[in-house]
Design a protein that fits this description.
265 residues; Serine Threonine Protein Phosphatase 5, Tetratricopeptide repeat; 2 domains; 15 helices
Length: 265
């Protein structure tokens, strides 16, 4: 293994007169596989400067020929670090030097995912202008819109206006609307239903967004879904309605709202 330390041999001696149990222990230890330990990855100065928002240092390193796509010990690029931290000037400097806005890092999380998840609207839009894929998936199938659904109105609206696909699903078969309703992020719910997200979409457990709103106790999100045509008595894979889930979790306000719409258990 490259960069591994040399194995250290086990050299245990058994003194004369040691008991048989100790001899057996030594014999057992000698049969165990040796473990090679990897040296820690080295930090990259450009990545660290971008993360710290040190524009002067970033520009100096780029002028010295450092690659704008340098990665840090976390496997993410300098552009990702700047986008995550909201360092807009650093993002601009990296893009001006040719940083790849489409390049993802660890777990296939892109700089756009990072900016969206932190609510950095202006940086997110700049990345899209530079070619970032609005439908890029992580290893868990999460798109930037899935992240926006957890974050709020502005980033959700930004992505929808840039043509993000509303019905892409993550590894749990959840759409952005599922995620927004589960989290009670009302601004995202409003935007998604306004632009036509499917209120009857089903996740891996056969649940609609209304099931999730009911199970989490988000009465206003439930009302919005119902106003946009959600089936109040839809049943999930286990035969449960939204009302049944609300009652099970003790969410009386949601249960009352559902009953006013004719909900049944």
């Amino acid at each position: 293994m490259a960069g591994a330390r040399a194995p250290v041999a086990i050299n245990l001696q058994v003194r004369s007169g040691s008991d048989q149990a100790m001899r057996r222990l030594v014999a057992l230890l000698c049969t165990l596989p040796l473990v090679a330990w990897s040296l820690p990855a080295k930090a990259d100065p450009l990545h660290d400067a971008a993360q710290d928002g040190d524009l002067a240092r970033v520009e100096a390193l780029l002028a010295q020929g450092r690659s704008p796509d340098a990665t840090g010990s976390d496997g993410n690029t300098a552009l990702y670090a700047a986008a995550y931290r909201g360092n807009a000037e650093v993002v601009e400097a990296l893009l001006a030097r040719g940083a790849d806005a489409t390049r993802a890092g660890r777990k296939e999380i892109s700089p756009l995912h990072a900016a969206i998840g932190r609510g950095h609207v202006e940086i997110a839009e700049r990345l899209i202008e530079a070619g970032a894929d609005v439908d890029r998936r992580t290893t868990k199938g999460e798109t930037p819109l899935h992240r926006a659904a957890k974050t709020g109105t502005a980033v959700t609206e930004l992505l929808v206006n840039w043509g993000a696909e509303l019905e892409l699903r993550d590894s749990r078969r959840r759409s952005a609307l599922h995620i927004a309703t589960a989290g009670g992020v009302l601004g995202s719910v409003f935007v998604l239903v306004k632009f036509g997200s499917d209120v009857e979409a089903r996740d891996a457990e056969g649940r609609t967004p209304l099931h999730l709103a009911a199970a989490r106790g988000h009465a206003t999100s439930a009302e919005v879904l119902l106003l946009h045509g959600a089936e109040v008595n839809a049943r999930d894979a286990d035969g449960r309605t939204p009302l049944a889930l609300a009652l099970k979790k003790g969410h009386r306000g949601v249960a009352a709202a559902l009953r006013r719409r004719g909900a049944r258990e």
